[in-house]
User: Fold this.
Amino acid sequence: MKGLLTISSERIKELRVEDKFKVVFKKILSFFAVAVIVLVFTIAISLTAISAMQKNYEIGNVQGEIRIDIQALSKAFLWAMAAPDPAIKEEQLGKAMDKFGEFDANLKTFSGLYSNQANLNKVSTDLKTVQANGEKLGEMFNSGSSNEEVFYFFNDTLYPSIDVVVKDLKAVSTETGASAASVYKTSMLVVVVMIIVSALIVVAIMIFIVNARKVFSNAILEPVNEISEAAGSMAKGRMKISIAYDAKDELGQLAKDLDHSTTVIENVVSDISASLDRVASGDFSKSTDHPELYVEDFAPIKESVDRIVSQLSGTIRDVKNASSKVAQDASNLAHGAQDLAEGATDQAAAVEELTASVESVNNQTKDMAASAEKGVDLAKQVRREAEVSAERMQEVTSAMERITDASHQIEQVTNAIEGIAKQTQLLALNASIEAARAGEMGKGFAVVADEISSLANESSEAVKNTHELIAGTIQEIENGNRVVEMTTEALGRVQDSVNSIAEIVQESGELARSQAQNMDEISKGIEQIAVVVQNNTATAQESSAVSTELSTQSEELNTLVSQFVV
Assistant:
């Protein structure tokens, strides 16, 4: 029993964390399964008892219905015997006969509920006897038997058979009551027993859970506390730690790994400390004594230490080489300073000559700028004259267009005159014809008609000549328009060229002015150069003294650098 309600701490300790949970929850689930089984059994017993009680209740109801029907049957026959009115007697007899049908229905329901076949057969037989006696009594009423005969049959035959049925139903009621009491007592006993068993199971579960919580907490918290304490020591910089927890679960493996990690970190820290001491003493020959310690994520630390030592070593070598070079350069600097002083004098003379040349160029540039400004003014004047010529040619073009329009109008007038002349010739011809018809009397009119015809012919000839002159004039005007148009286009091109020349000349003037300003700045720069050359002479002399001092200091630096091992 103790092993059932407890769990071994040693067994739990050796299990993996997942298996720890499985063992504990497996027992808890077993307890709960037993509790569920007990609960299901209790519910089944309760449902059985309820079903039996319900069945007994329905049997009691059916018995009550049969008794009520028997009482109603007796009452109906008694009312029929006592009724003075035949109608009432027939009504009561009808009610009595209807009860026999209800006997059959209730008996059928009763047979479906009641299981004691002997009592059931007895009740069924006795009810059929009552039904047969009742039907016979009804026949006696209908056959006209005397009241005395009817009464004695009811009292001696029918009523005793009803008493028998009542006794049968009492026996059934007594039996079903005893059965219901027995079922009730049995179900209550079982329910009480099941409640006690369930309570014991719940108590067992609680005892097991308390014990399991204690064992499980110890199995988890013991290694976790040790590991947490070790991690806290590592966080504070203490690497010499020891974890006593030893088990085969994940926490035991974690404790071993953490112990091994602290040992590795301690060795790495010791090696880095030794490397830094060696670097502090000036030994850059190697970066670490134990490179095998730096694996996986520790490899970048070794690479960083190697890089630091290598860079420092290279820096020291560079410093050593630089100090030697500085010494050599210091000597060269002294010679160079002397040469610089000598060259400064030559530079001063060259600067004076350059200043004179620049001054001459500056004067020429200013003259060129003034000429450019005059050219710009001249170009502007030419552009204005070209614009005026273009306007005049435009006026000529307009005048030629007006002449063309007038010539067309003259041509229209001439066409009208030509039409009139043709009409006049036609009239003269008609007049000649009429004069010929008139004979001697029309001779004078014929002479007039001939003169009119001659005048019309001359008018037509004049109109024709006028047409030719107008056509020639229009042709010459069109030629003149083309010449004017070509001249206008030429003047436009000339105007564009003049504008371009004016812009170019203006740009040349601006460039000349800009160049003059630049030459002024060059002159100022040359003056500054002259000052710089003088300063260079003084600086060269100072550099000679500094180079001597630099040579002395480079020799001292070589002495210091020679103390490092690279």
